Amino acid sequence: MIDLALSPYHLTSREPAAMLSLALARRVVTMIPTPTDDAGGLAGFSATQIAKAIPSYRKFVESWAWSTRLWDDNVLLASHRGQTAVDDMWAVTEHIEHEAKLLALRPFLKHDTFADPASYLHAVAADLLKGGPDPGISLPVVAGLDRFATRMNLLVARSRPQSLAQQAELKLAESLCSFAMPVFVQASADRLLHYRAELSRELAALREVLASIAKGATDPRNSDGPLVSRDDFADMHDASAQLQEQYAAGIENLRDDSDNDDVRLIEGFVTISVVRLPWDAALTSSVNAFAAAGNAKVPLAADTNAIATEQLPALHDGVSGRHFVSLLVKPMGQAVRAANLRSPRY
């Protein structure tokens, strides 16, 4: 069985990566931005309590209202094995401050520029609603979720690459396999639950194959052998075909009474490229994107924070050298830069 980490940006925009995740994974874990225990003021407040105090945060919470049934049914979760990704987000900001190769990212960090936790949460909520235009806010969230997924052995959903940094990340990805599946690219929470129930057997088979692939690809002992076995390739083909066949056979039942749904039901096919990435791929690719854009060198004299932290010892990090498996989700008809993916080891 697979559990999957999903960016709160994807969930807010309800893009195909989110809809695929909510259909496919046994459990989907996302990050709800909240203050840390030592933040003071709002520390310990629930998302609902924070929403009452911060208008932009309230709008962010309201944007997730459509998913209430998924939370109620424990399909969507904010924690995994008693832990959340919030601490990983803060660990990523500390990693950027200590890691020399990430020097170019330090001027973009925003966590020290806010007067109080309320100001920080206002900025994060506003960025989520805008789709993540500020890398100083979105990058620690995305990289923090990747770090969390690496620690917890979760798969991570990604949308097709659009930004320069996302395209640079593809060059770090090692291809494992790919498959296609029918999904509801727009649907209510109840309709998604109906999809999961009607195709439960086929989804379970697909999850089992993905779990096997992810286990082999992230095993640190598997440094020289094939990342994906031939049996897993064959099982993936069979599981994907069976899901498509059952979907086609039961489509009328899946659509039943959809005219009364809160949102119009839109069906579609997505292709999923299963890849392996280093835990810090989002950070490394951002640095590489800056370099490609001609901004590789950030003068130390212009970055007093960098000067202050450059000589600090590197932090011990339990995820160093580890990888996670990502599902790159693309609606059918959108081009994939497959040439950028590194070939799998057989």
Q: Can you characterise this structure?
A:
It is a single chain. By secondary structure, this protein is of the alpha/beta class. It contains 15 helices and seven strands. It has a seven-stranded mixed β-sheet, with helices on both faces. Helix 3 crosses helix 4 (55-63) and helix 9 packs across helix 14 (281-292). The chain starts with a strand and ends in a 15-residue tail after the last strand.
Topology of helices and strands:
Blueprint: E1 3-5, H1 8-13, H2 16-24, E2 27-29, H3 47-53, H4 55-63, H5 68-72, E3 76-77, H6 86-98, H7 117-130, H8 135-152, E4 155-159, H9 164-170, E5 174-186, H10 189-198, H11 200-218, H12 230-249, H13 251-255, E6 266-278, H14 281-292, H15 304-309, E7 323-331
Parallel strand pairs: 1-2, 1-4, 2-3, 4-7
Antiparallel strand pairs: 5-6, 6-7
Unreliable stretches (pLDDT < 50, length at least 5) are: 298-316, 335-341
Total number of helices = 15
Overall morphology = globular
By DSSP, the count of extended strands is: 7
